[in-house]
Amino acid sequence: MILVWTGLAIAAAALIWMAAVAGPLRRFFKLREDVRAHLHDFAPVLAAAKDEGGALLAEAQQTFHDLGTRMSGFAGRELATLKLRRSGFDPASAASGLTGLANALPAYGIERLRWRAQVERALNLGDVRMERSRLNPLLIALALAAIAFAGWTYTANWKLRHALRTAHIVRVSIEKETQRTHERAADAETARLAAEQSLTEVHAQLAAARKRQTAVRRSLADANAQLTLTRKAKVAAEQSLEQTKEQLAAAEGARKTAQDQVKALGEEVAALKGAKEGAERSLRAANDELAQIKAAKAESDAAAVKAKEDLEQEKKARAAAEQTPHAPPPATP
Length: 333
Description:
The chain has helices at residues 2-41, 43-46, 55-72, 78-86, 91-104, 110-123, 128-247, 252-281, 286-323. It folds into two domains: 2-126; 208-322, no CATH class. Helix 1 packs antiparallel against helix 3, helix 3 packs antiparallel against helix 5 (91-104) and helix 8 runs antiparallel to helix 9. The chain is built from nine helices and no strands.
């Protein structure tokens, strides 16, 4: 960027220099040609051997005075005057020579020749082609150099703008990709937090399930204990029934009733076994199965109480039978 601005500054300086020097130089050489042409046109007046009057002399005097005035305008231009002096021209001397020639025209004498020689010497009118060929290539070279430098500056500026535009596009792409990365990171962080929350909930659910499983296992242990007690009660009932069978051989009806009760107890035990198996298959329905087991226990307790009551009734019946006279046993249906 610094090179571009430097090139633009140099190009601007070159253009300013050309505008300040080339224009006045062209006007100077045009005025120089006018001076040469008027010196040629008024040569008869300048070479006259005697004083001349009339319109031609007045016209020549006015023309050279105007040329001197115009030529004096170049003396105040430092850049143009410096360049002209380096090239062998002296605008100030030419202006004074033209003014002096205009003032010396009314009286013929050596003054005309002196002022004319000063003008020709100041403007190098003896070798016009040489000076023109010396100046024109320089102006052309300067113009070509300025055009080439301007072209190089434009090309460098265009490449720099293209590079800056590409860098801007790349920067925008990088910013978009960075924003997408941040969004993806935020989404990943949100997903991670959601996963951690879900994992926490799963751990909580797992802990609750473990607690429920422990409760179900405890309920199953209680059911097994109750089943063991029921089995022991069954064994005791069977023993009592056997004793009752041995002691009450005559009371067949009572025995059948006791057998029916024992069958009912067996069915209850089978129901308890089925309830146990159902509890082992489904831990989640442990509360319902525990309620069923409790109901079965209540029924077994009621059956045991009933069996005890029946046993007491049978004992009472036996005692009553022993007190009454021996009667033949009733006929078995």
